[in-house]
């Protein structure tokens, strides 16, 4: 039986980062993963360029039953710490909108950096490992695979949630938590496109591909960003963000022209071009195909601008700035970027990420009930929670 100080289950962002830190402390550390390569989610993230952190990351950008839990880790390993590591390796990167940092070249730069850090620290990695059982006896964890059984003092669970099953995502981390008496909160797909009701699909799938800046609102939370019409429903950053707050049955309130005061715009157009048709005026601030679709849906009748009175304009303003969609559901884990819910943080130490009821067992990254916004926040949670656990495991 192989003996290790630390075994980390999961060769993703959190797991690798934890293993590096543990090995730096002189701990004999092994990472096990069920895939063929490390960092699979890193490689496909950000369109292959990895949105590796966000310069504005703060606890306010995370959802959790315990909103305070993430504060400790995020304050002890910050976005600036990770940026310094990226710079140390000379990886070129750039800021996109809203503080999002992406690699200039490829997400592979981040994975290569982590691999080099593992090599320097002496971390061993074993891939394509199917764990069939985890046992605890005599203060040691036994991790069983068909090939061999390995034993360790500290076991770190970093195998993620249920999102992107085609990358090997499973419920293993949640099952392990329950096996050792930890509570697992209900899970659902997060940062995920929303799907049409059948009646809406028949109408809107014709304009799939149309994108526009909006604000998306659900349950008193509002996100401004782009929205995309698809064959299946609504997507784009604004919709992915709001999907974390949307619940089945909720309405989605969309401002289709957030950068315009529609009443002022139409009044101005009316004065300047009284004979112009309403649809022509609206096509100056909205995609033409969307305007035609709204016309078809009789959201407004097409008429010359001079025929509009103040009440018509006000009604139109309200219709466009508070357009109501009733999504049918989400596309589910297949396309979700994250899993909401997971291992209840009340059972973990926010200082060490160790289970309060089970010495030497740690949970980090997406498997824990901490979910960030879209835009590098989930990677920052992975780095921070991994770093923290690595100081103690």
UniProtKB/TrEMBL annotation:
InterPro entries xrefs: BaiN-like (IPR004792), BaiN-like_dom_sf (IPR023166), FAD/NAD-bd_sf (IPR036188), RsdA/BaiN/AoA(So)-like_dom (IPR055178), RsdA/BaiN/AoA(So)_Rossmann (IPR057661)
Keyword Flavoprotein: yes
Entry keywords, A to Z: FAD, Flavoprotein
Gene3D superfamilies with a match to the protein in the record: FAD/NAD(P)-binding domain, HI0933 insert domain-like, Translation factors
Pfam families listed in its UniProt record: HI0933_like, HI0933_like_1st
Domain RsdA/BaiN/AoA(So)-like insert: 188-338
Domain RsdA/BaiN/AoA(So)-like Rossmann fold-like span(s) in chain numbering: 5-391
The keyword Transferase appears for this protein: no
Cofactor requirement: FAD
Superkingdom to which the source organism belongs: Bacteria
Name of this protein: Membrane protein
